[in-house]
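Re: the 318-residue chain
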Amino acid sequence: MRESRVDTAQAVVLAIGLHALLLAVLFFGMWFSSTREQVSAAGSPISAELIDAAALSEAMQQTLEDRPEPAVEPVPEPQPEPVPEDAAPLPQPVPEPVPEDAPTPPQTVPQEFLTDPDTESRDAVTDQPTPTPTDERELQEERRRQEQVDLTEQRRQQEAERQRRLSEMERERQQQLADIRRRREAAAREAAQAQAQLEKIAEARARSAAEAAASAPAGNNGVDTDLLARYQAAIQAAVLAKWTRPETVPLGARCKLIIRQLPGGEVMSAEVSSPCAYDEQGRRSIEAAVLKAQPLPHAGFEDVFNRTLIFTFTAQDR
């Protein structure tokens, strides 16, 4: 927008008018200002000189120092104006928030726990010289040597403990073996005593049978049936003393045996023949018992002796 000549003339007129107004205000202000009259006081005029305090005498300086302090009059406290009873209460100022009453912001990060305080004196640490690299290496070497010594001692103790346990285990094993040997020896003695007792019983039976056969009269074409029965009973007792009945052979079971013998009761062979109620184990056991029982009873049974003896064995307990 371009400025016209009318606008320019109007602005000049306004500026001249404003300056004329300011000059009129200043003129009237100076016209109405009052002048103060000097007051004449009685007496001579007061003169003053500045003197350095150091140039005064000592007595004057002491007097200046001991001068009393000017008394300060107490300022009376302003009395509150009386408030009429029907007047409305004055507005009370809003109390500012106290820093202690300010709300505590919630803690977003957990508080870190302080480590245990160092019980070592700082003065003692400060007084100690700072270790040099050489001293540090020596300390590390000494620490490694001490750790090696501790490890060696620990291994030695572990080895000693292992040896002690092995010794205890070996001692317990030896004790158990000794107990087993004692039990075996006791069982062997008992078995030997029982075997000797059975042999004595068999010999007594055979001896009594032989004595009875010697005193029996002959007859029946020279064959004494009573002597033959006693002879078979003596062989039964002799074989039974050497036989252990298997559990598979019931009591009272019979088995036929064919025994081949020499004069004097020496057995050449013994075999099982039919009928026989024993199983294979029972048959082998009775044949072995006949061989163990030799020499078979023969003294007093010469009249009924036969090289081939057919004998029926009855299963019994000793």
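Confidence is low (pLDDT under 50) at residues 216-223.
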